[in-house]
Amino acid sequence: MSQKEPDSQIGYLHSEDTYPELIIECDSRSLCTDEAVGKDLWKKAKYQKRPSFNLVGETEDEQRTYGKSDIDRIWVAVDGMGGDYAPGTILEGCLRAVELLPLKIRFVAEPELFDLAVQELRLEDKLQRALSNGLIELIPSGISIAMSEEPTMVRRKCRASINIAMDLVRIGRATSMYSAGNSGAVMASAIFRLGRLVGIDRPAIGALFPTKDPNQQVLVLDVGANTDCKPSYLHQFALLGNIYSQYVLQVEQPRIGLINIGEEDCKGNELCLKTYPLLMAENRFNFVGNCEGRDVLSGNFDVVICDGFTGNVMLKFLESVGSVLLEVLRAELPRGRRGKVGSAFLQRNLVRIKKRLDHAEHGGALLLGINGISVIGHGSSKALSVVSALRLAYSAAHHNVMSDLKKLSTAIVN
Amino acid sequence: MSQKEPDSQIGYLHSEDTYPELIIECDSRSLCTDEAVGKDLWKKAKYQKRPSFNLVGETEDEQRTYGKSDIDRIWVAVDGMGGDYAPGTILEGCLRAVELLPLKIRFVAEPELFDLAVQELRLEDKLQRALSNGLIELIPSGISIAMSEEPTMVRRKCRASINIAMDLVRIGRATSMYSAGNSGAVMASAIFRLGRLVGIDRPAIGALFPTKDPNQQVLVLDVGANTDCKPSYLHQFALLGNIYSQYVLQVEQPRIGLINIGEEDCKGNELCLKTYPLLMAENRFNFVGNCEGRDVLSGNFDVVICDGFTGNVMLKFLESVGSVLLEVLRAELPRGRRGKVGSAFLQRNLVRIKKRLDHAEHGGALLLGINGISVIGHGSSKALSVVSALRLAYSAAHHNVMSDLKKLSTAIVN
């Protein structure tokens, strides 16, 4: 895993009580309203056991301590304050993830809220173990950005957890970051802190939807970053999705579709009508035409392009349909005497079906088009979703998708 | 059922071989390119047995022949040429519908294609029976409007089946019409032939989605008539949906939601941000706020408002999710020995689940905001969808929804 050199504008202070403090670069043009700057060091020493920010396998000591398999672990920065159930549930997911996946987590959170959540969920022992094993590190943050706040608040709340997690990626202290917070704010922070890829006007959020074929997924983008789009944005989404599908999902020649309300090229809203010829004229990917709502899960497309409003509605709708149908199953299957007997026989298979439909299993989306890997979770993420999103973060970092996306930049400008 | 007086501009010719011919009013400003005008009389006499266009229960003879229950049947005009499998499958659905529902059908189609389809599907006997019983009448039409054609073609192809079916409603020869054709063309024809309700800029297509609660449906509009919307359109959709939900679905105080990507009023695309305050300021209905994709099927809303692009994608997506999940069930349930035994016990319940999920069961949408009842089916409608759509046409006509919608007109302008 290639690591970037620390950025000269950002440095680390190992505070007296061994906690690192990130000096966060503030935008001089906007007023930093974060009153906690400088005051919110992680005061309590009870969790942290080791000095922070040794890259994995960096020191001989670390190599001796954690052994070969641990050296392969990669660092992921987690915005511990993002999401409706943060920070407790996010931490819970992280603790599970480090048991299941070859990664280590730099967990960024407001210390006081974090401590409360740890007590509430009784995670002290588990956390302590993970800290002692060096699988989790805690990084203090300032006041967080609320779900209802404007994305631009990332410029005022400089020490918000989103910003710190993003900076960890920027300076190479993490290979990727994950946040279940305000997705607009995650995107804004990514743009300000990591920057866009050359040739990309607006980054997009790409989500993987299941298809009829259990072995195939379809990448849908944008699912929420850009509510109002221009045709050129959709064109760029197609370029981004194409690369991602090729290099991370290993699809040789991804079939790209444009979400529309009819198959014919004369159908659609103004945006689609203007986008269609752009995609049609493109020879850098395989545009196969319009994709109606009913075709998204058909398995006939590998990448599906849409504006962020439509994609977001569709993503959330999909999740709910799964749970509605589970309720239908629960209500209908055991009806009657035969139903009761049959259902009893099917317990194990029903659990598997639930797992396949459950959105928590598909709980992360990638921010594409920025200069680093960011995974965005649902605001309502529970522990299982967090694990699933971290799996995605690992997978993207592991496949070194960034280097491919940077190649794309060159391709777009040329 | 109140019947309108025949429009003076439109009359009927009973052709020599007893087939009625509709003299279709053509827009003098647009050139009528339909070469078949005047030539496409239904030449073959083999199906038709009775003189056409006696309104149900209109003649004593009819009352004697068909008895009391038949008098209660209402006339529905069907665009026999609309849809991917027209006219055969549409006729098949109509033949089934007249057995199940208290209605009679005026079936409009191109005679030659109709004859071919009847032969192909071997519907001769069934059709003959329905004709002899006066449950179906055949009306010849000119060249149809293709799925890929511009909606404005309804002004050039004056004798297209959509136009004739619409005119039957206009002159009171049918209480409602059904088409599974080009939905843009259906809307255009409805606007030109029937006219909009006073105060309504753009009619909308409203579809009923199932919810978690088997006894509750949610009305989603628009699902395809208006791909690009203004805030005032969405405002009017809310007014239309409110009345429809109250009078046809019998919801006392419908809870109205606006499709958006977040619950907060600051979230959304430009259209939603501008629509929200309009709905908020309204006191003629109960606007309960933004409705995310995941909330549509929650049962927390009775009416959900969105632009026709988003609604159409969602509608088609919903249908496909049902069938994808059925495939998941089919694949996962019988796995293993216990699974096979259990599935065998569950056969009957599985059929019921399939029925509840199958989109063919939910196969029609209402065109709201025009001066008459039009039901639009999916382009891919099969016989079962046709029956389901005709049930909706019957239900709307039976509840006399038009008189309530006309009251709305007064409410909107006041």
UniProtKB/TrEMBL annotation, chains A, B:
Give the primary localization class. Answer: cytoplasm
* EC identifiers of the protein: 2.3.1.274
Q: Which SUPFAM superfamilies match?
A: Isocitrate/Isopropylmalate dehydrogenase-like (SSF53659)
User: In its UniProt record, which GO terms are filed under biological process?
Assistant: fatty acid biosynthetic process; phospholipid biosynthetic process
Can you name a GO cellular component term?
cytoplasm
Q: Which InterPro entries match?
A: FA_synthesis, Phospholipid_synth_PlsX-like
Where does it live in the cell? Cytoplasm
Which ranges does the record mark as transmembrane? none
Keyword Magnesium (UniProt):
no
Its recorded reaction(s) are: a fatty acyl-[ACP] + phosphate = an acyl phosphate + holo-[ACP]
Keywords from the named record: Cytoplasm, Lipid biosynthesis, Lipid metabolism, Phospholipid biosynthesis, Phospholipid metabolism, Plastid, Transferase
Tell me the enzyme class: transferase
Q: Which Pfam families match?
A: FA_synthesis (PF02504)
Q: Does the keyword Disulfide bond apply?
A: no
Molecular functions per Gene Ontology: phosphate:acyl-[acyl carrier protein] acyltransferase activity
**Domain of life per record:** Eukaryota
NCBIfam families, per database record: plsX (TIGR00182)
Question: Whom does it interact with, and what assembly results?
Answer: Homodimer. Probably interacts with PlsY.
Protein name, as recorded:
phosphate acyltransferase
